[in-house]
Structures are given as structure tokens and as C-alpha cells.
């Protein structure tokens, strides 16, 4: 939808321009054998050409972690490019969005998360080049079990004042172990064979503290995170298990199902046709996700190996949620 992004804010004296960037594909994780396989057909997501421009104003910090800090934003404007290309579904100025800003040495991690969000546009493979509007409603996961995703944007050699604010301060124990010249390794980095990931510009990316990169993702803003009392509610459990079923059908394992990564669904959430409901909850933060590659249609047929794989993944994710809810 958008090719460029402008960020402003009370602590950003000069507007910062970012451009849509390539994301980082994953290798395929075979959960049956517990090994990664090369997946040459998994390419970086296709970038929109001559699409729209989005202008946002950062407001309050709403969450923070080892890899990124997330801000609520106000939509200042959304416009089409001067080339005359018409951009459909321009956002309302009242749309509730948020911006997840990578720490300067975690841009590669955010590039991977962006790829997973893009993969959530459609649960079926072979439609990677399709726009969100082209995907049948029944096959969508983005905007259904996870927030709408509006793009991954970067800017090189910029000064981003919040980096030096309290917003980006981390625990002293983490700070001593944090290497500003290196991002955290991804689980599939050890696979040496050729694949779509290996042709990505992010494969060997290293941060340079003297030439920092600003990387952000833009998505719909969810509500409060899941609390212990929520997890005990049977309707909440049913809704979250339905979401995990959808995620497992798409052969995606979240990898970090802490209550902080389960939020009340954004107001823009649409009907899940598979469960005939608008989910009350959404999952976020896919930086630790691993992706298998079984056939979605076969995974709905009882007795097939794909169905058994889906059920196994779903069981693992339900167990993970059940274990983590105690720490809410």
C-alpha cells in the first residue's frame, strides 16, 4: 500500500523519511525431523512500486523489549504518488496504528519479523506475489488473527533522537552482553545451503554504530495484553486456541507465546471465515517464528501426514500458551 513513510514527533525536530525495504525470508523448518531445509522459492516479499506515502506522528511508548520499542502513532496524512497511481483503501486519519522501531543493532531481526507478517497475508503457498486485496477473505490471516501490516521501512545514516532517550534504555545486565556491532543470530543461520534467504541483502548484515540504520514496521494497534485472569476464561481460551489452529494450519509456529505477545484485537479486525467469528484476540511479535511448509488443503484432511503435522504443531502451541499464561 505504501512505498514511503515520514515520521515526526515531539522529540523528532526534523521529519525522517524512510523507504519500503526488502525483508528476510526464512528457511523451512521440518518439525517432523527437527531440521531446517533450504527453500529457494521463499523470496523476500515483493515491494509495492510507486504506491502511497504515509505520514505518522509518534506519541507514547506502548511496549519495549530486547529487539525493539513500539510507539502509538497518529496518522497525519496518506497520499498517492505524483505518478498518478491510484492507491486503494487509503487509511482514515482516525485509524489506530503503531510503529515498532528496531534497536540500531536489531534491524535484521525486524526484517525477519516483517517477512512473517507478509506471509500472514495468505495461509496458502504460491500466492506470495498477490496483494492483500487479491487474497480471498477465507485465506487471510493478516487482519484476522494478527494485526494488519502496512510495511517494513528503513532509512540509512539517520539521527533518531529517541535512541538516546529513556525509551531505548535496557537493563544493565542486558547492556553488558549487548554487542552493538552484531544482531542476535536467527535459528536458521547455521544452514549453509542455498535458498531464498541466502540471496537476501540481510543475510550477512552487520550494524555499524557510526552509520546507524533506522528500521520500522507499521501495523494496526492492538489493545491490552492477555492477563492471567483472561487466560482462565473459557471463552478467551477457546478464541486463542482457534487463533493457534489458524496459525498452525499455515505451518507457522510463533515461538514466543508469552502473554505480552497476545493482545486484544484491533478495531480493524475482520471476520475469520474458518471459525465464523471476529477474534477478540490477536498474536503479535513474530521475530522468533519458525515456518514449516506442508500443504494447507491436505492439512484439513484427517489421516494425511499434513493433517498430523498441523495437529502436532497446534498441540505444541496450545501447550506453550498454557505454560506462559501463568506468568501474565
UniProtKB/TrEMBL annotation:
<protein>
    <recommendedName>
        <fullName>Protein kinase domain-containing protein</fullName>
    </recommendedName>
</protein>
<dbReference type="InterPro" id="IPR000719">
    <property type="entry name" value="Prot_kinase_dom"/>
</dbReference>
<feature type="domain" description="Protein kinase">
    <location>
        <begin position="56"/>
        <end position="328"/>
    </location>
</feature>
<dbReference type="GO" id="GO:0004672">
    <property type="term" value="F:protein kinase activity"/>
</dbReference>
<dbReference type="GO" id="GO:0005524">
    <property type="term" value="F:ATP binding"/>
</dbReference>
Amino acid at each position: 500500500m505504501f512505498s514511503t513513510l515520514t515520521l515526526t514527533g515531539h522529540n523528532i525536530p526534523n521529519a525522517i523519511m524512510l523507504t519500503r525495504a526488502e525483508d528476510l525470508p526464512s528457511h523451512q523448518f521440518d518439525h517432523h525431523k527437527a531440521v531446517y531445509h533450504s527453500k529457494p522459492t521463499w523470496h523476500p516479499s515483493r515491494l509495492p512500486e510507486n504506491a502511497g506515502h504515509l505520514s505518522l506522528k509518534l506519541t507514547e511508548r506502548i511496549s519495549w523489549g530486547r529487539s525493539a520499542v513500539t510507539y502509538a502513532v497518529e496518522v497525519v496524512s496518506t497520499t498517492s504518488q505524483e505518478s498518478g497511481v491510484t492507491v486503494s483503501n487509503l487509511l482514515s486519519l482516525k485509524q489506530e496504528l503503531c510503529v515498532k522501531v528496531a534497536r540500531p543493532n536489531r534491524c535484521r531481526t525486524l526484517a525477519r519479523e516483517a517477512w512473517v507478517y507478509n506471509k500472514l497475508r495468505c495461509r496458502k503457498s504460491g500466492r506470495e506475489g498477490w496483494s492483500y486485496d487479491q487474497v480471498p477473505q477465507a485465506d487471510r490471516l493478516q487482519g484476522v488473527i494478527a494485526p494488519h501490516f502496512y510495511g517494513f521501512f528503513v532509512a540509512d545514516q539517520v539521527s533518531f533522537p529517541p535512541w538516546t532517550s529513556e525509551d531505548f534504555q535496557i537493563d544493565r545486565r542486558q547492556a553488558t552482553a549487548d554487542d552493538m556491532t552484531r544482531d542476535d543470530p536467527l535459528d536458521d543461520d547455521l544452514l549453509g545451503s542455498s535458498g531464498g534467504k541466502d540471496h537476501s541483502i540481510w543475510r550477512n548484515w552487520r550494524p555499524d554504530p557510526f552509520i546507524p540504520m533506522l528500521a520500522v514496521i507499521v501495523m494496526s494497534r492492538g489493545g491490552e495484553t492477555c492477563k492471567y485472569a483472561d487466560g482462565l476464561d473459557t471463552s478467551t481460551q477457546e478464541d486463542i486456541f482457534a487463533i493457534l489452529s489458524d496459525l498452525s494450519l499455515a505451518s507457522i509456529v510463533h515461538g514466543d507465546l508469552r502473554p505480552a505477545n497476545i493482545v486484544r484485537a484491533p478495531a480493524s479486525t475482520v471476520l475469520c471465515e474458518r471459525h465464523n467469528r471476529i477474534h477478540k484476540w490477536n498474536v503479535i511479535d513474530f521475530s522468533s517464528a519458525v515456518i514449516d511448509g506442508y500443504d494447507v488443503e491436505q492439512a484439513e484432511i484427517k489421516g494425511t501426514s499434513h493433517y498430523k503435522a498441523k495437529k502436532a504443531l497446534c498441540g505444541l502451541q496450545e501447550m506453550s500458551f498454557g505454560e506462559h499464561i501463568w506468568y501474565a
